[in-house]
């Protein structure tokens, strides 16, 4: 896992959960990592297409729109 469990647990609790099982934290972290990697790959491809090595915020925004 790339993401730490504590911030994921905090995110679920912030959404309104009073109690969060460790299996839920792991499942959420895996989903977020998969989604984040998809966005990052698309953003990197967009930056490369633009002739840049640096991924910018606009690459992330455009990647989100495309996914």
**Rounded Rg:** 15 Å
What's the story with the biggest beta sheet?
A: none
Kindly state the percentage of residues in helix: over 70%
How much beta, percentage-wise? Answer: under 5%
Shape: elongated
Counted by DSSP, the helix tally is 3
CATH level-two architecture of the domain at 21-66? Orthogonal Bundle
Succession of helices and strands: HHH
Q: How is the CATH topology of the domain at 21-66 named? A: Histone, subunit A
The CATH class assignment of the domain at 21-66 is: Mainly Alpha
Distance between the amino and carboxyl termini: 22 Å
Q: Given the helix and strand composition, which structural class is it?
A: mainly alpha
| Number of E-state strands | 0
CATH superfamily of the domain at 21-66: Histone, subunit A
Low-confidence region ranges? none
Averaged pLDDT, please?
97
Molecular structure report:
The protein is mostly helical. It has a domain at 21-66: Orthogonal Bundle (Histone, subunit A). It is 72% helix and 0% strand. The protein has 3 helices and no strands. The longest helix has 28 residues, at 22-49. The two termini are 22 Å apart. 7% of the residues are buried. The mean pLDDT is 97.
């Amino acid at each position: 896992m790339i993401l730490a469990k504590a911030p994921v647990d905090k995110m679920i609790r912030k959404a309104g959960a009073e109690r969060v099982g460790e299996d839920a934290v792991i499942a959420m972290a895996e989903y977020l990592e998969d989604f984040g990697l998809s966005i990052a790959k698309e953003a990197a491809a967009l930056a490369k297409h633009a002739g840049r090595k640096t991924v910018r915020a606009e690459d992330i925004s455009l990647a989100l729109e495309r996914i």
